[in-house]
């Protein structure tokens, strides 16, 4: 799974570097991904890799970002170029334990299978498909689609495509998707909790982690062009939890602004582009940044590291 996780992280990281005006109509899940999502799906995240990579700011940034060694090994072994051959990555949280990743693009099934065999991955047949195992994870290869995730999650996805037609998503997920504007290359909705962030490798100070345990669900959307425009919402178990987290974030931003006001005015401008508000049990964070400013800050950081 490391190569897809790596791709997802690159896409998300690059996405935090630009966007323009967002059209008003909502997004939707493509039918290819939808047919793999079982009724137990409680959260969905989508990365339009092709759209993201077409953004001018992302194209500039990718020239400076080397691929991780494990990811480069996969590219060399399969001939798949993530910048031209991967179109979309859809991540689904199934129940509270399982998850699957659906990768779409121009994927040479035979080359990927040979790569997995060369790596000594064990395989067996399931519903007419071959599943390759990597410890507690599994990978299944279909025509121009790769499924991967926990073993049970991948099997549930393969079970789902045996059924006639696509099962409808839960009504709350459908309603949340309607709040996501079209044109966003990265978006997510559903029951993504602090435990999911920990699984994805996101860490933070203990008090923050403790507060975020009350996080129940949320949405995230981001569009990339030459500037950045992103919006995230989080719904908490109660109003006090939402207020405490919002106050903590606002306080951290205020302290950061005081610390950099004189020494790094450009960074101060970037911090001014982050706004946090709360109402009832919901927190909303918006980010609006200049792509030129972010590139300038990246240049300063690079110079300091030399």
Q: Structural class per helix/strand content?
A: alpha+beta
Question: How would you write the strand order of the largest sheet?
Answer: 4-5-6-7-3-2-1-8-9-10-12-11
Give helix and strand order, one letter per element, not per position: HHEHHHHEEHEEEEHHEHHEEHHEEH
CATH structural fold name of the largest domain: Protein Transport Mog1p, Chain A
Report the sheet-strand fraction.
25-35%
Please count the beta strands (DSSP E, at least 2 residues each). Answer: 12
Shape: globular
Give the total of domains.
2
CATH architecture of the largest domain: 3-Layer(aba) Sandwich
In round numbers, the mean pLDDT is 80
The portion of residues assigned to helices is 40-55%
Q: Supply the CATH class of the largest domain.
A: Alpha Beta
Can you walk me through this structure?
With 306 residues, this protein is α+β, with helices and mostly antiparallel strands. The protein folds into two domains: 2-160, Protein Transport Mog1p, Chain A (3-Layer(aba) Sandwich), CATH 3.40.1000; 171-305, no CATH class. Helices cover 42% and strands 28% of the residues. It contains 14 helices and twelve strands. The protein has helices at 2-15, 31-34, 49-53, 56-62, 69-78, 82-85, 109-118, 151-160, 171-177, 194-199, 206-212, 239-260, 265-272, 291-305; strands at 41-47, 86-94, 98-105, 122-126, 129-134, 137-142, 145-150, 186-190, 215-224, 227-236, 274-279, 282-290. It has a twelve-stranded antiparallel sheet, with helices on both faces. Strand 6 (137-142) and strand 7 form a beta hairpin. Helix 12 (239-260) runs antiparallel to helix 13 and helix 13 (265-272) packs across helix 14 (291-305). The longest helix has 22 residues, at 239-260. Mean pLDDT is 80; it is low at 1-25 and 300-306.
